[in-house]
Amino acid sequence: MNTPANTSKPVPQPEAELRAPENENTLATLAMPLGETVLTLTASGVPIYGILHRSRAMTGQSDFFRLQFRGFARTEGNQWLHYANDDARFHTSYNCAWVRVDHPSRSVTFGPKSGVNCVEAFTGLGLDTFLFAQTISWVKGAYPDYAISPGLIAMTGNVSEEEKLRRNAFYASQGFQFDWQDAAQRTGLYFKDKVSRLLGVWDKEHIQEVGGEAMLQSLALQDETRAALEEKVNRLESSCSSMKSALQRERNTSQILMGVLIIGVMLALWALI
Length: 273
Description:
By secondary structure, the protein is α+β, with helices and mostly antiparallel strands. The protein has a domain at 24-208. Helix content is 35%, strand content 27%. It has four helices and eleven strands; from the N terminus they run αββββββαββαβββα. The protein has helices at 24-30, 127-142, 161-172, 212-272, and strands at residues 32-43, 46-58, 62-76, 79-82, 96-102, 107-111, 147-148, 151-154, 177-180, 187-191, 207-210. Strands 1, 2, 3, 4, 5, 6, 7 and 11 form an eight-stranded mixed β-sheet that branches. Strands 8-10-9 form a three-stranded antiparallel β-sheet, with no helix packed on it. It is elongated, with a radius of gyration of 36 Å.
């Protein structure tokens, strides 16, 4: 007797539950440097120079990208004033911005969670916007179809209307929308449905990044200019030396002629005696 074939359909396995996103602090410790460049800011016409550091961590679940800035010096006339202490070091909560990509949920989260904040020396120069825009540009190029996890924005204490407008403009200028939790717009969420719909813009007139090639070109130009100035100085010194020699010869000739003239006068006087 033949056993009938088993015609029952296979029972579908339940989909694995999504894992919680990996902690950004853990990812930050795994991040490897991608390189450093010079960043120039302009504050009331005064150039400010600093170092921009990029790093990235990649795991089976996440992709983490971070930028950090530290001040180097500002110039006043021909004088370089170097930054020190907190202004001259890399921070994990100030002068930085990051984005965490979670592959299982196909979503990205921007940070720091408290917002992109700068130390007092670099506040109001557009550095926060630049750092935020750079993380947006990076994730747009890598994961344009991923969703965006809403971020919390909140203001405590006495906040002026101008401060609220400035905070809102910070996110709105990058293409985010808001879901307010109170009528005064003190607390809410900033969100967007897809990474590709963000902007990633900053003030390119007052903030510029200088790469290695541009730095080498600048150094080469400075060396050429210095060499040309040294050659000009050498020519001027040589010309000055020649003029001094000619003047000394003229003096010597004048002295000789004067001596001859005196002797001639004395001889003439002796002849008359």
